[in-house]
Amino acid sequence: MNLIWVIQAKPLRGCCMELTFNDGSRKNYDFEKLIGTHPMYDFFRNPVAFNNYTLDGWTVSWNEGRVDVAPEYLYEHGTPVDSI
Predict the structure, then answer these.
(1) What pLDDT does 1 receive?
(2) Domain segments of the chain: what residues?
(3) How far apart are CA 48 and CA 7, in angstroms?
(4) What's the CATH class of domain 6-83?
């Protein structure tokens, strides 16, 4: 598999985002699935904090780059936009 990274992120409802990857594919991922899996993701419950994200050239990140999710994980576990 070639290296994959997020080139665009668009917030949807709740903790969902539509992510565009460098291979042109678009996938939706519900970050709510991560709440409770590790304390660093618990702030996703706060919509203001969740929507205060950046793209760091590789993936979506929060809290000045201290919190992120691997782009490969998002790619593998996201739902293709065309299948929704």
Answers:
(1) 58
(2) 6-83
(3) 22
(4) alpha beta
